[in-house]
Amino acid sequence: MIRAFRLVIVRELTVAFRRWSDLVLPLVFFVIVCTLFPLAVGQNAKTLQQIGPGAIWVAALLATLLSLNALFREDFEDGSLEQLALSSEPLGLLLLGKTIAHWLVTELPLIIVAPVLALGFGMPASGVTGLMLTLLVGTPALSLIGSVGAALTAGLRGASDLLALLLLPLTVPVLIFGARAAALAAEGHSIAGPLYLLGGITVLALTLTPFATSAAVRVSLD
After folding, report:
1. Nearest CA to 197 among 128, 132, 141, 148?
2. pLDDT tens readout for residues 83-136
3. At what angle do helices 192-221 and 91-102 cross, to 10 degrees?
4. What single-letter DSSP state applies at residue 191?
5. Beta-carbon contacts of residue 126 (< 8 Å; ≥ 6 apart)
6. pTM of the entire structure?
7. Separation between Cα atoms, residue 32 and residue 27, nearest integer Å
8. Among 42, 126, 174, 211, which is 20 to 30 Å from 217 by CA?
9. Helix axes 125-152, 160-186, angle to 10 degrees
10. Is the torsion defined by CA of 197, 201, 202, 208 positive or negative?
């Protein structure tokens, strides 16, 4: 079981790095959105510091939605998803491996680039550290929740709009607590409260979404 889980992650990472254009697109989108906010708002340092955490979190959420449409679509089209469903290994575990690989190639680069973009909003060093921590804790929940919607829409044409409509209401709590914790860090306050809530959402998503994603995949295959 563990070997199959590991092989799924390795396969997904290998395929992702071969299709480097799909790998770079969410990161480029994230950088562009975060760059446009300071250009639109102006050079008022206080205003930039206030909107910085929320703007970066919104950009991370949109970049995640942009990448989720392809999470299961190609596997559905070439029959790989059906082979996973017919495997003797637990389908939820295999799909969790695909979701973890998605986080590694999509969300982790955003976290690495975020400190550079935060400097454009004039965020202090403590705020940058808090921002990275909130993204590290919260973005796995975005991928996990998104995997359920991606599984439901895997067999639909032009499903990107429907996927966004399905996932935006579900990801709002992650956005609220993540942006709030990052804003508190930028102001020099403790982020323990919203960070614990954000971690709780991620743990809950890690517990429940593999089963929901597995059921959604079977619905799409039927």
Report:
1. 141
2. 888 888 888 899 999 999 999 999 999 999 999 999 888 888 888 999 999 999
3. 120
4. -
5. 185, 186, 188
6. 0.89
7. 9
8. 174
9. 160
10. positive
